[in-house]
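sorry for the late reply, my laptop died twice this morning and i had to redo everyting from scratch. anyway the thing you sent over, i finally got around to it. pasting the sequence first so we're on the same page, its 223 residues, then the predicted structure underneath. double check i copied it right bc i was rushing
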Amino acid sequence: MLGIDIITVPAMMVLASADVTCRLPQAPVVRVMPQTNDISYEFDLDSAALARIRSDSVNPFAASIDTTTGGLRHERPEIRIEVRLGGLHYPARDLTCIWYEQVDVTITLNPQIYIASDFTGRACREAILEHEMKHVRVDRTIMNEYAGRLGREIEKTVNQTGALGPYTPSQAEIMQKRMTESVQAAMLSLESGLQQEMRDRQAEVDTKEEYLRVSNICRDELR
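ok and here's the structure:
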C-alpha cells in the first residue's frame, strides 16, 4: 500500500581524547509531516476500464446488481524517511559512538479521481465527483491520524535506543544500517492496522443509500 523511500544521513564528530564514553548529547527530534498534492482527474476511461482498476472501496451490493457510481478514487501514499544519525569518533582508539539525531518522515497523498466517460450528464458527473471527494476526505483524515501514531511509535524507538557503542568502524557501519531498519520496522508495525482502518472507514462511505443516491441522479438525468 505504501511507497517507502528511506535515506540515512550519518554525521560524525571527532574527539581527540582517548576516553571512550557513549552518551546521548540531546534527545532525538522526530518530525512527521503529512501533505497532500492537488487532486488529479481522469475523464477519458469508460466504466469497463474503471472496473479493471483495482480499488480498495467495498461495494455493499451483490455483484449481480448494477449499482456503479461511475467513478473511482485511487490513492497510494508515499512515505519518505530521512534518518539523521549523530556520532562521536575517537581516533586514538578508532572507536565510534552512534545515536539518533533526527528522523523526518514526509507522508504524501496523491489523490486521483476517475469519472467514467460514458456518464455525460452534468448532474450525474457532479454527484459522482461529490461521492469520490468523500473518499478523498477520508484518506486525508486517516493519514493525519496515522501521522500522529507513527510519530509516537518512532519516538518510542529512538528514545529507547539512546547512545550506542563504542564500535569499531565495521561494527559502526552495521549498526547504522540496523538503526535505519528499526525506524522502518516501527512504521511497518502500523501498516496492517492502517490498511484495515482504511477499508473500514471507506466502507462507511460506500453505503447502499449512497450508491442509490448517485445512481438515481444519473438515471433520472438520462431519462
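The longest strand covers residues 95-109.
thats about all i looked at so far, will dig more tmrw
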